[in-house]
Amino acid sequence: MKSNKKISQIIIAGIKEAYTKDGGDFYHETLKVSHGKFIGIFVTIFLSLNAFFGSLYYFIPGMISGPDEPNFIDCFSFSVQTMGTVGYGTYYPKSLLAHALVTIEVMIGLLGIGTFAALAFARISLPNSKLIFSDKLLINQDDGEPHLMCRVAHLRNNMVVNAQISLQLIHPSINRGGQIEMIMETLPLIKNNYHVMTGAWVVKHPLTKDSPMCGKSTSTLNQENCSIIATITGIDGTTSEAINHVHSYSPDDIIWHQRFKSIIFKDPQSEGHIVDLTMINEIESTKLPHSVD
Length: 293
What we know:
Elements: E1 6-9, E2 16-19, H1 26-32, H2 35-59, E3 64-65, H3 72-83, E4 92-93, H4 96-124, E5 131-133, E6 137-142, E7 145-154, E8 160-174, E9 180-186, E10 193-197, E11 200-206, H5 218-223, E12 227-236, E13 242-249, E14 254-256, E15 258-260, E16 264-266, E17 273-275, E18 283-285
Parallel strand pairs: 6-14
Antiparallel strand pairs: 1-2, 3-4, 5-7, 6-7, 7-11, 8-9, 8-10, 8-12, 12-13, 15-18, 16-17
C-alpha cells in the first residue's frame, strides 16, 4: 500500500518530520507560501477560470451578443468582466444557457475573489517582529567564567514589551525501553527577560558544571546530533500583538575564542550613545580552551 507520509525539514538541524496529508491546512499553508508564489497562484487560477468560461462563450453558438461577432478575446474579456462584476455592457448574455453560465461564473467570482482577498489581508496583518539572532554562538570568558553567548536584536524602530528569551539544547536519546526520544534541556541564562527591549542584547549561558553543555566540544555535540534552539517572545509595543522568533544553531555554528564586538558608541554630536545594529554579527578574538570541563 502506498504511504501518504511526507518528509519535512524542521528547524532542528539534522532532524526531519514525517507527516500525513491529514496534517495539511489550506489556510495555514497559504499563509506560509512566499508573496511571489501567492500572487502566482491567484493569477494562474484567475486566468484559467476565465479562459475556461471564455471558451464556453466562444465555442457554444449564440451565447453572447454585441456590436460585432465576438472572437475569443472578446469572450475572454466578457468572462473577466462577469467574474469581476464589472459589466461594461459591450457584450451581454443572449440565451438561457448563457444566463445560467453567467450566474455560475458570478458566484465563483464572488467566492473566489473574496477568499483570496481575505487571505491577502490575513498575510498582510500577520505580526512581523523584525527580531533577529546572531548567525553564530560564541564561547568566551565573561567575568572570569566561560559563557555560551548569542546576540539578539530588534530592528524595528519601536520596543518589545515583556520579552522572554530562552536557549535549549536538543538531541536524540535512547530511553530504557530502547526507544529514541528527543531530549530538550534548558540552558539557564544570566538574564532571560526584559520588561522593555530595544536595540540589541547579548544572551549569556554560564558553562558551569551543572550546564548540559559541560564537558562538550564541537565534535562531541556533532556526534550526539545536538542542536541549540534560541527563542524570543514578547508583545509589540505599537500594535500590542504577540510576536516571536526562533533560530536554530548547529554545533558548527559555535565559535570558540571569540566574543561579540561592542556595538554601542559615543555620539560625537551629543552626550548620548548610538547602538549600531548593523554590527550584530561582528566578533573579535579571545582565548579559551576548546572544551568546557
